[in-house]
Design a protein that fits this description.
Blueprint lengths: L1 H17 L4 H8 L2 H15 L3 H16 L2 H19 L3 H18 L1 H10 L6 H26 L1
Length: 152
């Protein structure tokens, strides 16, 4: 009975919103695309035309958190394309920035460091390795941001 009531309520909402021109907004919201657009708009407003400098940082954070370049690209690829539309730059450049930033995140990814310390018989030195790798990852991401900013 609960599913029937839920379906009927959704039907009423669609009918009401149809007359107000909000039907497409309802479908976008229920299919999950609204979240990316909201975040993209916020990023575009906050950073403006300087966003390409920060685009690789998003990819870097994605890989740092997930441990995977591919996961970072899946998580943030659509976000980067949406921001590109808001700030009038090529989505190709921001998508590439996400991918390059993701490889920078792999340098400091805890999963990668754990595997490296285990393979190199350096268990217990993860903190030292992370601390020494951070400057290289930051430089890599910063240089990428500058390149993307110049050419996008």
């Amino acid at each position: 009975m609960g599913a029937v009531c839920c379906t009927l309520e959704y039907g009423k909402a669609v009918k009401e919103n149809f007359y107000h021109g909000n039907l497409s907004g309802e479908f976008v919201h229920y299919h999950g695309y609204g979240r990316y657009d909201f975040i993209a708009t916020a990023l575009a407003v906050a950073t403006g035309s300087l966003y390409p400098l920060f685009a690789p940082v998003i990819g870097c954070l994605g890989t740092f958190i997930t441990g995977s370049d591919t996961s970072s690209n899946i998580l943030f690829g659509k976000l980067q394309a949406n921001v590109a539309g808001h700030i009038q730059v090529s989505p190709d450049w921001l998508s590439a920035a996400n991918t390059v930033g993701a490889t920078g995140g792999k340098i400091i990814s805890p999963q990668s460091i754990a595997i490296a310390t285990s393979a190199g018989n350096q268990q217990g030195k993860e903190g030292e390795i992370l601390k020494s790798a951070i400057p290289y990852a930051l430089a890599y991401v910063l240089i990428t941001g500058v390149i993307v900013y110049i050419f996008s």
